[in-house]
Amino acid sequence: MILEMVRANGAVSLRELARVVQTSEVTVRRDVRILEAEGLLDRRHGGAVLPGGFTREAGFPQRSLAASAEKAAIAEAAAGLVGEGEAVVVGAGTTTQELARRLARVAGLTVVTNSLLVAQALAHANRVEVVMTGGTLRGSNYALVGSGAEQSLQGLRVSRAFISGAGLTAERGLSTSNMLSASVDRALVHAAAEVVVLADQSKLGADTMFQTVPTEMISHLVTDQPAPDSEAAAQLEALADQGVRISVAPGEAARGGRARRDFPVPTPRSPAPNPLGQGAAVGRRAGG
């Protein structure tokens, strides 16, 4: 069962494995060590990945079904960060798609995105203006990529970027398995004064091929509740030690409960300088 899940998804957290096989994380960790010794998978902080050092990207159907309740809770918490009249960029992904559904209720919002799914979620939101990038369609995640997408973001300046990815580590930051997607995500990040990463526990500790956002550029991480004393919790501690603000969305958020709990950050730092400087502002509160 463990090997089948890793092969299907590319990377699976210990927490998710324990839930599916209905056993403890300690037992799952022992089984993962055995499978690693046989060369069938590799261990990473808080999970298991396919052998070879980097995780691969699962197909969209698998991604959309994986950790759906956690993604909904993360999206609900992240939506609370956005105020009326702001301008934000939202990257491609199943978690950012959930975020977009909740941003439809924010009046006067401008959303710049390269994701067809994000645009579709906001298509009937009369109070939200949606700006699509140019680019070439990447069918596996319904995102626009390539030089057209990147050039359309030049000179743009917004308050926040909401980005997700395939892996997140304290050492390397956010990463993805596709070079074209990574390049557009970097352009989205460079257009924002603040970078907010949306990542559920299955992403923590996973390392994929192309870095999109180094840790020092991540202002804020919104994630779901880690198991006490788990490797995922340790990864959050490491990110907090590097100055990333952590907000943990409990499961109740998906059912309308408490939206966000801030993880203590021992050494807050100033936002990383934006390489593009002061570009063209979008929206009434852009850059603020």
UniProtKB/TrEMBL annotation:
Asked if Repeat is a keyword of the record, the answer is no
Per the database record, which ranges form the HTH deoR-type domain?
1-50
What stretches pass through the bilayer? none
Checking Gene3D superfamilies in the record gives: 3.40.50.1360, Winged helix-like DNA-binding domain superfamily/Winged helix DNA-binding domain
Q: Where is this region: Disordered?
A: 249-288
Q: InterPro entries given for it?
A: Carb_Metab_HTH_regulators, DeoR-like_C, DeoR_HTH, NagB/RpiA_transferase-like, WH-like_DNA-bd_sf, WH_DNA-bd_sf
Mind listing the GO molecular function terms for this protein? DNA-binding transcription factor activity
Cite the record's Pro residues compositional bias ranges.
Answer: 265-274
Q: Read off the PROSITE patterns from this record.
A: HTH_DEOR_2 (PS51000)
Could you list this entry's UniProt keywords, alphabetically sorted.
Transcription, Transcription regulation
Q: Give one Pfam family, short name only.
A: DeoRC
Bias (Low complexity) ranges: 277-288
Concerning PANTHER family, the annotation shows: AGA OPERON TRANSCRIPTIONAL REPRESSOR-RELATED (PTHR30363:SF44), HTH-TYPE TRANSCRIPTIONAL REGULATOR SRLR-RELATED (PTHR30363)
Please state what the protein is called: DeoR/GlpR transcriptional regulator
Q: Which organism is it from?
A: Streptomyces lonarensis
